[in-house]
Write a structure and sequence with these properties.
By secondary structure, the chain is α/β, with parallel strands linked by helices. The chain folds into two domains: about 1-215, Spore Coat Polysaccharide Biosynthesis Protein SpsA, Chain A (Alpha-Beta Complex); about 235-294. About 45% of the residues lie in helices and about 20% in strands. The chain is built from twelve helices and ten strands. The chain has helices at about 25-35, 55-65, 80-90, 110-120, 165-170, 180-190, 215, 220-230, 240-250, 260-270, 270-275, 275-294, and strands spanning about 1-5, 15-20, 40-50, 70-75, 95-100, 105, 125-135, 140-145, 160-165, 195-205. Strands 1, 2, 3, 4, 5, 6, 7, 8, 9 and 10 form a ten-stranded mixed β-sheet that branches. Helix 1 (about 25-35) links the parallel strand 2 and strand 3. Helix 1 (about 25-35) packs parallel to helix 2 (about 55-65), helix 6 packs parallel to helix 8 and helix 9 (about 240-250) runs antiparallel to helix 10 (about 260-270). The longest helix is centred in the last third of the chain and has 17 residues, at about 275-294. The chain is globular. The protein starts with a strand and ends with a helix.
């Protein structure tokens, strides 16, 4: 592992980590969006996860141009969660965040999220709305984040966030065995002990494209999502809520779904399953078609 060291001994207020593995296509634009922030007291830690394309050249050039940029090279490909952990192990800031090499920060993102902590000093994690874009950067619509109280029903924290260093340290980073849902797992664990604050401002651009990790590993992500949500279900959760969450997990998957999720939902609260029978019927037809064409 090799990397650049900061030229200034003063710790920045914010540490932004960007893990990169063969992400040259949009990398320069992604880096530029961080460097264009209206709040300037940050460090950008570029974690090169053993890239074999032009990404290393782009990252080393960025580090040479701007002293806020640090370049960390991993000799072997370790995957996104582990790359994040490597980056945050080097982070010096009071606040942490991370972004991807295909996504973009709006110029006021850090300023506005830091403003949440000024208004709500009890908050540990701030998160905001974002816009979905396609390969060409076309607007696909705004994604509105939801309350943390609904987190068991889906990852409604989204892609735009900032959290205190204490959160990173208390949770021990991201689970390297949960590649694809490492962020959702992080929020589920954080929700048990930290305070969240939502901001309904559009501060980020999230790119949806066929080459993204979410698109490539959809089936595995569904299975891992079921694992982490079931693990996070509190013992005192009302039967109806437990049934609705388990059934929702089953209905989100079209191929690698699990009948036992439906059975457990039925055992927890039969009326909730009965109310979703039309959706279950449609889901069964989709699953049957996919099995025939697989």
């Amino acid at each position: 592992m090799t990397g650049t060291t900061p030229s200034d001994s003063a710790a920045p207020r914010v540490s932004m980590v960007m893990p990169v593995h063969n992400g040259a296509r949009w990398l320069e634009e992604a880096i530029a969006s961080v460097l264009a922030q209206s709040f300037a007291d940050f460090e950008l830690i570029l974690v090169d996860d053993a890239s074999r394309d032009e990404s290393p050249a782009i990252m080393t050039a960025a580090a040479a141009r701007d002293p806020r940029v640090r370049y960390l090279r991993l000799d072997t490909n370790v995957g996104l969660p582990a790359a994040l952990n490597h980056g945050f192990a080097q982070a010096r800031g009071e606040f942490h965040s991370w972004t991807s090499d295909d996504n973009l920060l709006r110029p006021a993102m850090l300023e506005r999220l830091l403003g949440v902590f000024a208004v709500q000093p009890e908050a540990d994690i701030a998160y905001a709305d974002f816009t979905l874009i396609d390969d060409q950067g076309n607007d696909l619509g705004r994604s509105r984040v939801g309350p943390v109280e609904r987190l068991l029903h889906g990852n409604n924290i989204g892609a735009c966030f900032l959290y205190r260093r204490d959160v990173s340290e208390a949770l021990g980073g991201y689970d390297i065995g949960l590649f694809g849902v490492e962020d959702y797992d992080f929020w589920l664990r954080a929700a048990q002990r930290f305070t969240f604050a939502e901001l309904h401002e559009d501060l980020y651009l999230y790119r949806k494209h066929g080459g993204s990790l979410t698109s490539k590993r959809a089936d595995q992500i569904h299975a891992l999502t079921a694992l982490i949500v079931e693990r996070a279900l509190p013992d005192q959760l009302p039967p109806r809520s437990r049934s609705e969450i388990l059934l929702g997990l089953a209905l989100k998957s079209q191929r690698r779904w699990r009948f036992d999720l439906v059975r457990r939902a039925l055992r927890a609260h039969p009326p909730s399953v009965a109310a979703r029978l039309p959706a279950l019927a449609r889901w069964t037809l989709v699953v049957a078609r996919n099995r025939m064409t697989a």
